[in-house]
């Protein structure tokens, strides 16, 4: 079991919420891809088809809770259909619009406005009237993440901040203290010079300081902009700020690290970044708790810390995946879904989830000493959670902003195709147009 280093973070009281169009790695076990139409007829149980993207090491814990729920009663049967997140997001709007789509879809809470604004999701405010469970035990940050235009459209599946993983053996080999990860951007830059190894001088390092994905991933680059007081969109979700002086300062720093100093490869997806770190070819990665199992199984000697603090702030990305209900689901199916959501967020289920996945529980009333998986306590550290911030919560076109505007602009700059300020000034105009379109 790796030693988990926790550096104190500056509590900023920023609500933990959702980020990105992600590659949240997820669970094993491919669900049936057959007919997704649920059932309510006859004397049999109500069938709920649940789409989710948990295709990685946290997958078995999801399946265990579903199996436990199905075995606990005979009125509702949940049938999971598991697919990669990018495939899910490509299919979900069309599927929700059809008459035979899934009744329940798990998604990043940042994507909720995109579907809620089109009338594809059922409101879930009545779940929070405590008919199904005492929702006061759920963190406000997790429940508020799925609010759009004053209505709540989601119930938390998970909640997690991102942390810095660092390979202690690679730190030692570079002459660095294996117990001291970079605490600031400047420390990162200094350490990265020693951790980037190009043995034959061909311009293609055999080892990189870090693995920073620049597409199909959780929004790590966007998170880095917060360190200088910048960002992609203002906190009130009304104004594009990606070309503000603060944002450009952050972009200039990190583009220099990656493009000019080769601290990370260019063109990595989230899965690519995970593999690079897992195979010992990158010394650091910023990612969530879903990778702890895979990294442990790979035998990595690693530590965990808050991401390096920027000049202005210590901030990390907070991610919430939320359960949503198809607006086409009938009353019986919607009731069955809420019954399942309550079971998922029960004490017993959250202990199963935390112990099996390394995520912190979605409940605030489960003491750390009641959890068997030490990672759950690390990622659930109150000060770490207190430094976590929303990414594009409440912005209807968050997917367009992230995948069609921000990442293409970033990739252009990383590949030397255009001046950074000019590229992101155009991106800012495009983001503002997407916000105004609503």
Automatic annotation (TrEMBL):
Residues 1-28 form the signal peptide. The keyword 4Fe-4S does not apply. InterPro entries: Bact_solute-bd_prot1, SBP. Keywords: Signal, Sugar transport, Transport. SUPFAM superfamilies: Periplasmic binding protein-like II. The keyword Transport applies. This is Multiple sugar transport system substrate-binding protein. It comes from Cellulomonas hominis. The lineage of its organism: Bacteria, Bacillati, Actinomycetota, Actinomycetes, Micrococcales.
């Amino acid at each position: 079991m790796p030693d988990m280093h926790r550096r104190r973070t500056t509590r900023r009281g920023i609500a933990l919420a959702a980020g990105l169009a992600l590659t949240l790695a997820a669970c094993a076990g491919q669900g049936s891809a057959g007919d997704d139409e649920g059932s309510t007829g006859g004397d049999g149980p109500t069938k709920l088809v649940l789409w989710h993207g948990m295709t990685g090491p946290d997958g078995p814990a999801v399946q265990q809770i579903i199996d436990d729920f199905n075995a606990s009663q005979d009125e509702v049967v949940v049938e999971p259909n598991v697919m990669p997140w990018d495939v899910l997001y490509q299919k979900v709007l069309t599927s929700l619009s059809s008459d035979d789509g899934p009744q329940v879809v798990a998604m990043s809470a940042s994507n909720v406005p995109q579907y809620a604004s089109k009338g594809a999701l059922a409101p879930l405010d009545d779940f929070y009237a405590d008919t199904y469970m005492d929702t006061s035990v759920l963190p406000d940050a997790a429940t508020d993440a799925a609010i759009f235009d004053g209505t709540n459209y989601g119930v938390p599946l998970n909640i997690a901040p991102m942390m810095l993983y660092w390979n202690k053996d690679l730190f030692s080999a570079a002459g660095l203290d294996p117990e001291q990860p970079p605490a600031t951007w400047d420390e990162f830059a200094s350490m990265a010079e020693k951790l980037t190894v190009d043995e034959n001088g061909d311009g293609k390092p055999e080892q990189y300081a870090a693995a920073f994905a620049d597409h199909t991933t959780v929004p790590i680059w966007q998170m880095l902009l917060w360190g200088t007081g910048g960002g992609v969109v203002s906190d009130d979700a009304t104004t594009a700020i990606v070309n503000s002086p603060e944002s450009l300062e952050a972009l200039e720093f990190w583009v220099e690290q990656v493009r000019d100093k080769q601290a990370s490869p260019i063109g990595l997806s989230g899965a690519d970044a995970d593999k690079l770190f897992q195979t010992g070819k990158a010394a650091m990665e910023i990612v969530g708790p879903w990778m702890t199992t895979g990294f442990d199984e790979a035998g990595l000697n690693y530590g965990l810390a808050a991401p390096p603090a920027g000049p202005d702030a210590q901030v990390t990305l907070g991610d919430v995946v939320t359960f949503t209900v198809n607006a086409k689901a009938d009353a019986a199916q919607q009731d069955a879904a809420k019954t399942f959501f309550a079971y998922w967020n029960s004490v017993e289920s959250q202990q199963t989830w935390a112990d099996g996945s390394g995520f912190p529980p979605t409940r605030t009333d489960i003491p750390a000493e009641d959890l068997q998986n030490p990672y759950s306590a690390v990622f659930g550290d109150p000060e770490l959670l207190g430094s976590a911030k929303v990414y594009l919560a409440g912005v209807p076109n968050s997917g367009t902003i992230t995948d069609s505007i921000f990442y293409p602009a970033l990739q252009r700059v990383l590949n030397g195709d255009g001046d950074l300020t000019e590229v992101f000034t155009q991106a800012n105009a495009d983001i503002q147009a997407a916000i105004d379109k609503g």
